[in-house]
Amino acid sequence: MRPRSLDEVVGQRRLLGKDGPLRAAIEKGMCRSFLFWGPPGTGKTTVGRILAERTGARFVHLSAALAGVKEVRGVLEASQFRWRAERKRDLLFLDEIHRFNRAQQDVLLSYIEEGSVMFVGATTENPSFALTSALLSRSQLFPFDPLEDADLVRLIDRALVDERGLAGAFRLDGPARDLLLAVADGDARRALTALDLAASIAEGEAIDEATVSHAVQRKGFRYDRAGDEHYNLISALHKSIRNSDPDAVLYWLARMLEGGEDPRFIVRRLLRAASEDVGLADPRGLEQAVAAWKVVEVMGLPECELAIAQAAVFLACAPKSNALYRGLGAARSDVVDHPVEEVPLHLRNAPTAMMQGLGYSNGYLYAHDFADGVAPMSCLPASLADRRYYVPTDRGAEHGLAERLERLRKLARSVPPASGGAPPAQRAP
Fold first, then answer.
1. 56 FRET partner, CA 20 to 30 A, in 20, 195, 366, 386?
2. Which CATH number is 228-317's, of 2.160.10.10, 1.20.272.10, 1.10.1740.10, 3.30.565.10?
3. Could you report the per-residue pLDDT of 237-253, keeping only the tens digit for each?
């Protein structure tokens, strides 16, 4: 059922529609080096084959998971010879190119630069991370999207009647078609495989929902614990927590758990969100995240799932503050962007007579000697005395903290008592 022309390809209208850039390049023969990036079953290999046919090139299909540099170099050299001798190009379609390391990818560069081979690299991983900048600069990148349900319906209906498919031997009812769409998850190959398997076990001409369910057993998830979905889903989870959306939090969490994600990876992000997005607006958020982490370490899956969900939903429902995040960032900027300040003498410890003679600890005031527990003393270097890194919000437990903090800062800026005067409170022993 592989499409034989661009008109038979379903989906990818943005690239292959009437005004699509990839369609225009193929039809005009303006093809040198392409990178196809997208999930499995979205037409990358199919379009590569159609490209070779439209340009009269010989299609050479290799997988970076199986082929080494020696085999790839052999194809490139043969193509170079054919180009120089016959002025005909080969099209090297290198699947899973992200599996090649930097040195292996560099083998392609001179041949692509020379133009002796048409090259199409296909990857399911983000090219920004998986491919070298040299290869990216020599190739045109085309992102492929998962197929929409309407596209999959066209594909399934075509397979039911086409002579290359089931040739009208079976009927598919509505619930069965809906289940196939859910199982496919935007993957044409998965949809056709499930349909083929359901037809092979169907009793009679009818394929119903029970037959599809029996054939598939369990939905396969498009998830890679080291790939794009790994980072996309954890980003969605974190941002849903930040936006106080517990329903979205549970959905993205379920996606990761069903995809086989390491629960320790999930709970590490919860620990980060507890401080970055909840902070002191509800200090219990960090306690919940730490508790979930302990449950993960002690019990593991599947028992730890509810503890993770509890912590995630608690963080989503908690009042939010990024005051700590902004404060630490501002302090770090001062540390990085300005000369390093010396620790003021009055804050330095003076365990020896020499240090005391140098003025270490001179002028230090013991906070507990004062009624409010705040000494009239600055703890920042003189050049940074007016800096305000921590600025609390008025949400959650931080509500009212700004007023209290301003009062404490005024006490710290007040004039110290005269030397020898009695302190407001007795110094602790």
1. 20
2. 1.20.272.10
3. 999 999 999 999 999 99
